[in-house]
């Protein structure tokens, strides 16, 4: 029987259909650095990569700038500081400067990302506010359409002009855009007032083997089902059950990649009594079947 040869995955840095990308030339950066209004925080590059199949960038010496990556669709990975971080829809991460890293889109469900490189006197403080002492923590925020409009406005303004006053407007708007992520909890206290949703998510992660209804999860947090459902969707952009299923599928990917467990055993470990339902759910979320995923990632 002839053995099928699997070609290595192509690595693409850019050139995606529908992509947007602007990198500021050195002469413009020099003007910004000497501008007292925006030298404290300014962008050096910005872009949008939709469904970026085979996107793969590695910087062994890191970047001179901080790199903001916001995922709105699909999945991707960031390898940094000895960990492999997963970016899923409605999550973001800031890569610290001068730190070795590699990021890549998911093989079968590639991410759609909005990204920006930034620097300046307060860039480190902005990063520290994001990280809060945990350098490998991916943050989640609800999807807000106005953020995308704000990003597109910044990009359009940059396309049209790099004059001094226009660059001031662009970078002030960029700081406002970034603040809408980093300070989301502080400016939306109604969503985070009791931290019940964060506790509920932690409860889900500790009980992946269980089967829960919305009512079960609401009772666990001493909330009514309607209030719990509304608050959960405000914070995550997803329903509790869909989110719980995504956590289960993410965990199943770890089992498929790092263990020799069979799909049947993984189902039992994650509370799926129906193996066919698990396979359908897995394909719906990742874009491929569990068996193919295991074959692609066989170590």
Q: What would you say this structure looks like, in words?
A:
It is a single chain. With 299 residues, the protein is an alpha+beta fold. The protein contains 13 helices and 10 strands. The protein is globular, with a radius of gyration of 21 Å. It folds into 2 domains: 20-187, Regulatory protein AraC (Jelly Rolls), CATH 2.60.120; 192-296, Homeodomain-like (Arc Repressor Mutant, subunit A), CATH 1.10.10. A hairpin with a 2-residue loop joins strand 5 (76-80) and strand 6. The chain has helices spanning 26-33, 123-131, 145-160, 164-182, 184-187, 189-192, 196-206, 214-220, 225-236, 240-258, 263-269, 275-286, 290-296, and strands at residues 20-23, 42-49, 56-59, 66-73, 76-80, 83-87, 91-95, 101-105, 112-119, 139-140. This is AraC family transcriptional regulator. It comes from Pedobacter miscanthi. Residues 198-296 form the HTH araC/xylS-type domain.
Sequence of strands across the biggest β-sheet:
1-2-9-4-7-10
Order of helices and strands: EHEEEEEEEEHEHHHHHHHHHHH
| CATH architecture annotation of the largest domain | Sandwich
Q: Shape, please?
A: globular
CATH domain class name of the largest domain = Mainly Beta
Organism: Pedobacter miscanthi
GO molecular function, one term: DNA-binding transcription factor activity
Keywords: DNA-binding, Transcription, Transcription regulation
Domain HTH araC/xylS-type: 198-296
């Amino acid at each position: 029987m002839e053995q099928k040869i699997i070609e290595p995955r192509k690595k693409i840095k850019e050139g995606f259909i529908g992509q947007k990308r602007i990198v500021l030339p050195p002469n413009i950066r020099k003007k910004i650095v000497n501008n007292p209004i925006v030298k404290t925080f300014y962008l050096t590059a910005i872009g949008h990569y939709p469904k970026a199949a085979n996107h793969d960038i590695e910087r062994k010496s890191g970047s001179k700038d901080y790199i903001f990556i916001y995922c709105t669709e699909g999945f991707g990975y960031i390898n940094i500081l000895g960990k492999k971080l997963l970016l899923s829809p409605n999550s973001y991460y800031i890569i610290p400067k001068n730190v070795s890293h590699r990021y890549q889109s998911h093989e079968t469900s590639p991410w759609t990302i909005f990204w920006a490189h930034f620097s300046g006197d307060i860039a480190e403080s902005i990063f520290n506010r994001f990280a809060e002492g945990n350098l490998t923590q991916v943050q989640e925020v609800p999807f807000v359409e106005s953020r995308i409009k704000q990003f597109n406005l910044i990009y359009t303004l940059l396309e049209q002009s790099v004059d001094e006053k226009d660059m001031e407007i662009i970078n002030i708007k960029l700081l406002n855009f970034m603040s809408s992520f980093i300070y989301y909890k502080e400016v939306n206290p109604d969503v985070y007032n009791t931290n019940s949703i964060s506790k509920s998510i932690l409860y889900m992660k500790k009980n992946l083997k269980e089967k829960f209804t919305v009512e079960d999860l609401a009772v666990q947090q001493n909330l009514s089902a309607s209030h719990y459902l509304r608050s959960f969707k405000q914070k995550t952009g997803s329903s509790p059950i869909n989110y719980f299923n995504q956590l289960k599928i993410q965990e199943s990917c770890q089992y498929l990649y790092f263990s020799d467990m069979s799909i049947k055993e993984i189902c039992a470990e994650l509370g799926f009594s129906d193996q066919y339902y698990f396979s359908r759910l897995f394909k719906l979320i990742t874009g491929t079947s569990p068996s193919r995923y295991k074959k692609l990632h066989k170590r």
